[in-house]
Design goal:
The protein is an alpha+beta fold. The chain has a domain at 169-266: GMP Synthetase, Chain A, domain 3, CATH 3.30.300. It contains eight helices and 15 strands. It has helices at 2-7, 16-28, 48-58, 84-87, 134-140, 179-186, 221-228, 257-266; strands spanning 11-14, 38-41, 63-68, 76-79, 94-95, 99-104, 117-123, 141-142, 145-154, 160-165, 170-172, 175-177, 192-202, 206-215, 240-243. The strands form four sheets. The protein has a five-stranded mixed sheet. Strands 6, 7, 8, 9 and 10 form a five-stranded antiparallel sheet that branches. A hairpin with a 5-residue loop joins strand 9 and strand 10 (160-165). Helix 2 (16-28) packs across helix 3 (48-58). It is globular, with a radius of gyration of 19 Å. It starts with a helix and ends with a helix.
């Protein structure tokens, strides 16, 4: 924020977590951001409430969402500023130039509206292969389409919504639970400042839902469960909670859920 003010920066790209942290600072301290022409975010999912919060605090209508992955180069999809009023939280409906995007089921067939499948990409910007790793390369493509590893759905207007990562799905008692949905609801519980939801082993259900959270003080588990009971189906509500100092993330803001699972297993 200080750099934008002093250097008169015009364009900024950051992960959602960077915007959210900056927004908390902006609520306490004012900076001159009038030089900014374009605020761009991407690298991790973000909910509609968080997008609107960022727009409000930054006092901007120039927020643009981008979706993609390293293996796809600059290719992916975009949510333009004027689309945020109605579709905040979506990753857009228009693929980048020279790129095709679709959502497919396990057989590679395209899914219908509001059906969940894996997002795949095809175009001139795709990688050719993983260096010296033909096995990983083979797994990365399906009929010439690059598998993103992201689960998503189309809505009735053709906008794409990322549901979660394929590898992060929690299967409890044979039922699929998408952690991102649970995390979005937990973030509405005021004492929680940051959260990550993962599946941990359970002797009867295979996995159960656990929430790692950041807050000033330990939460009242009964209270948070009551809060979630009107927002989530019963099987999606976390059974276990653990307060930690910080949610581990990589450089692009993605939560390192494998690290949280490993720490739980070591305990």
């Amino acid at each position: 924020l200080k750099a934008i003010e002093t250097e008169k920066i015009t364009h900024f790209f950051g992960a959602p977590v960077a915007y959210l942290l900056a927004a908390k600072i902006l609520e306490q301290q004012k900076f001159d951001l009038s030089s900014m022409e374009w605020f761009v975010y991407g690298g991790a999912p973000i909910g509609a409430n968080e997008v609107r919060y960022i727009q409000k605090v930054f006092e901007t209508d120039r927020l643009t969402g981008v979706y993609g992955l390293t293996e796809a180069g600059p290719s992916g999809s975009l949510l333009f500023p004027e689309e945020h009023d109605k579709k905040a939280g979506s990753v857009g409906r228009r693929a980048s130039l020279f790129t095709e995007l679709k959502i497919v089921d396990e057989k590679g067939d395209e899914v219908g509206p509001n059906e969940i499948g894996e997002v795949v990409l095809r175009g001139l910007g795709m990688m050719k292969e993983y260096y010296n790793n033909p096995e990983a390369t083979e797994k990365a493509f399906i009929d010439g389409w690059l598998r993103t590893g992201d689960l998503g759905r189309y809505d009735e207007d053709g906008y794409i919504w990322i549901v979660d990562r394929v590898k992060d799905i929690i299967i409890s008692g044979g039922v699929n639970i998408y952690p991102f949905e649970v995390e979005q609801e937990l973030m509405k519980y005021e004492p929680i400042q940051d959260v990550a939801v993962v599946g941990v082993p359970h002797p009867e259900w295979g996995e159960t839902v656990k929430a790692f959270y950041v807050s000033a003080a330990p939460i009242d588990e009964a209270d948070v469960k009551a809060f979630l009971s009107t927002r989530l189906a019963a099987h999606k509500i976390p059974r276990m909670y653990e307060k930690i100092d910080a949610i581990p993330r990589n450089a692009t803001g993605k939560i390192l859920k494998h690290q949280l699972r490993k720490e739980y297993e070591l305990k």
